[in-house]
Known about the structure:
Blueprint: H1 22-35, E1 40-45, E2 50-52, H2 65-68, E3 72-80, E4 83-85, H3 87-100, H4 108-122, E5 127-134, E6 151-157, H5 165-168, E7 171-175, H6 183-186, H7 194-205, E8 210-212, E9 227-231, E10 236-239, H8 249-257, E11 269-272, H9 277-281, E12 285-290, E13 294-301, E14 304-305, H10 313-328, E15 333-335
Parallel strand pairs: 7-8, 7-13, 10-11
Antiparallel strand pairs: 1-2, 1-6, 3-4, 3-5, 4-15, 5-6, 9-10, 9-12, 12-13, 13-14
The structure holds pyridoxal-5'-phosphate.
Residues 76, 196, 222, 225-227, 246, 248-251, 290-291 line the site of pyridoxal-5'-phosphate (PLP).
Amino acid sequence: MVHCGVEETIMPVPSALQTLTANEVVEKLRALRARQPVKYWAFYSSQLGGIVTDPALMIIPFDDHMVHRGHGIFDTAAIEAGKIYDLEAHLDRFIRSARNSKLRLPARDEMRDIIVRTTAASGRREGSIRYWASAGPGSLGLTPAAGAEPGFFVMISAGLAYPDSWYAQGLRVMTTTYPIKPPLYAVTKSVTYLPNVLMQMEAQERGLDNGVFIDEAGNVGESSNMNVAFVSADGTLKHPKFDHILSGCTSLRLLELATALQGPRLIKAIEVCDIPVAEARAAREMLLIGSSVKVAPIVEWDGKPIGDGKPGPIARALRELLTEDMRSGRDRLIEVPY
Ligand SMILES: Cc1ncc(COP(=O)(O)O)c(C=O)c1O
């Protein structure tokens, strides 16, 4: 399938080719950032052995195995009102991803300390922390270079922002034409996000907000960088099993918090189970869940309304529970020593 026209595939390049000095390279990296400003506040690199705050210097060698073979992992946590939310859950998943990817990490306490100190260096009280582990540079081979030094990187940024309309009016999604990742790769948060990227681009090209992966058995998987869940017609909160999709830290926490809504009015029961597409389409509510989006209502899927086609009460109630937990969930917040 061709997803874009020929002209769009041509990249403009400068006609004069120069061999650059180190100073010219830094100048050019700064010019790149001036042409396209970014909201990156601080970056730690184990390769640099320190933190930089100039986005032009937030760089990684081209021969790093994460760059040219996709052999790297990442995870993301939120900074909310000057505290880091649920970092331990994100570190658990990062460590699992490293194991699945045969990557070496710094000790857990060291990673936590570097993350907290990089956050403090950013001075930011709201934002996003994304951190990566790579196999390191040293060759262009398929397996890591002999003696490659593994890399650990932390970026403090403004994070992803979504339009208010996603919460007020809800999102419109489509079943993606791209195949879901096989379970081992879906449960591992590796940097190889090609299916996820293509899924969201495909949806946007059709004027929609996002896509949904369906597994080979016809059960609902997840969205591009978010999980999906449903409220069935009888009021059961249903979430797909985590054996073939990413274990969303937000979903896992919400499944605990949602017990507060259990009762005759809102949620009748909570289930983590296979959800066949036909059953999912008949849901009263469909939810998009993740660290960046929090909880947003999906009101249309493949051109058909979900429930009455309007954002529902459970999406709102779960978003409120999560917001409250992010502000005051004492055992899940780390103070940042700014
Ligand atoms: C593929 C995928 N699924 C689900 C999620 C949601 O996970 P979390 O709630 O930890 O952000 C993410 C985001 O990290 C993701 O990339």
